[in-house]
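Practice record 12: protein with tryptophanyl-5'AMP.
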Amino acid sequence: MSNKKRVFSGVQPSGAVTLGNYLGAFKGWADRQHEKVNFFCLVDLHSLTVPQEPAELRANTRTLAALLLACGLSPDKCTLFVQSHVVAHAEACWLLNCVTPLGWLQRMTQYKDKSAKQESVFTGLLDYPVLMAGDILLYDTDEVPVGDDQRQHVELARDIAQSFNSRYETEFFVVPQAVIPEVGARVMGLDDPTSKMSKSSAHIRGHAVKLLDDPKEILRSFKRAKTDSGNEIRFSDDPEKAGVNNLLGIYKVLTEKSNSEVESDFADARGYGDLKTRVAEVVIAALEPIQARYHEIMSDPGELDRILAVGAQQAAAVSMPKIEEMKRMMGLVLPK
Ligand code: TYM
């Protein structure tokens, strides 16, 4: 067995993929894929926790798979698969439900936020973090690279792992660690730099940059970005300057420069208009090759299906023995 660290992460195939997803997650997954044993999952079962248009969900799943490959994930270095193709995930969720106190789920901030916005709340929304814990724990995951908004979910996966291990007096589950990037972990909305850029608000004009937006649209979104009434271009914790800070953060992740290098790049800028245009240009330059690769990949749907089928086989080879052992430990009789 390889002694490389095991990495698992996931993304929901619902809505349009944003620059936040890319900077907070996909870029880091691709940049570090050589160092680790990687599992990246299109978590379609998670998407079902809020109402979906079936045809749209199917199309989005394929689009997202192609986008992840276009962002640089290599099928030689990563297992890329669709969650519902590997039955161990739904099974793990059920088994872990039976050892997870309800109070742990009711306290989750994403559940509280999302359920407050819905007229009727389905059980899946409450149970979402248990399905996610199953995803992670099935693969003996050491590291879970995610954006800041998933920190609490990974904490819960740790709690579930520890509670299972102590209940059955074993070290059966590896206790995973969230790996959150120093910059880019929380890309904010361009229209409102006090709230996270999110897929679910991506339809709101000026909120998000989507990975498949054309250059004109990207420039337009940045030009409309909310800033403050001043003119100082520097990193700052001041809530007043959250807009400028967000733009500089985006520039910083993409150029891989230090804070002082970024600030000196803008020393000659003529106001916020200039800042917005230059950040837009860096984003456009980063997304252009991704978009070109995306279109190439989408032109060969057979190859995309093949990659996902191989991914599902590889993922099942790891997670099916794990779920069998889990069932045995919990007292279920395995079929002969
Ligand atoms: P999802 O689909 O909402 O987002 C995928 C990844 O993108 C990150 N992200 C962001 N990072 C920075 N700034 C933003 N504005 C931003 N928006 C999204 C997310 O933090 C995430 O890393 N619950 C997960 C999916 C999941 C999962 C898992 C993740 C299911 N099972 C197991 C890790 C391990 C989710 O909804 O991500």
